[in-house]
């Protein structure tokens, strides 16, 4: 069992600052705590123990694949770097999805698709060229440097 003494509870309540939108601590609660502080029989307030190892099926979220990133930021929120970062990550996710889809189609075509006949490496390089993954020559190579 975890325990706080009534004196500790009274100190916490006295140090608590109520925010503008909160209701102040009820005076009856403060009186009840004060009476427990002065009562010699109640030296510890016992709280029910919570087993942290057995958190139940609803508290631990299962991992999941994130398929899309929410990039919305309110217009009143002045965070240009955060907005730019969200745009970059979103564009990267879209490119990755396109590459994954293009790679799956290329692999299917290379393995023969529905007719079951596989292609040779020439076919594979043509498919990669069609997907925009072919090599580009630099200006130095074209100039012969």
UniProtKB/TrEMBL annotation:
Residues 109-145 are annotated as: Disordered. Residues 111-120 have a biased composition (Acidic residues). It comes from the Eukaryota. Residues 1-39 form the Dilute domain. InterPro entries: Dilute_dom. This is Dilute domain-containing protein. The lineage of its organism: Eukaryota, Fungi, Dikarya, Ascomycota, Pezizomycotina.
């Amino acid at each position: 069992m975890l325990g706080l003494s009534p004196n500790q509870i009274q100190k916490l309540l006295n140090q608590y600052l109520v925010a503008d939108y909160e209701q102040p601590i009820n005076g009856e609660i403060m009186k009840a705590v004060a009476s427990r502080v002065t009562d010699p029989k109640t030296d510890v307030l016992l709280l029910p123990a919570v087993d942290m190892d057995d958190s139940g099926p609803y508290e631990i979220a299962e991992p999941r694949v994130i398929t899309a990133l929410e990039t919305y930021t309110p217009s009143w929120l002045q965070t240009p770097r955060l907005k730019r970062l969200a745009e970059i990550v979103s564009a990267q996710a879209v490119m990755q999805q396109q590459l994954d889809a293009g790679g799956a189609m290329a692999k299917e075509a290379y393995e023969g698709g529905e007719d079951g006949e596989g292609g040779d490496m020439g076919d594979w390089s043509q498919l990669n060229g069609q997907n925009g993954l072919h090599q580009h020559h630099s200006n130095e190579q074209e100039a012969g440097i």
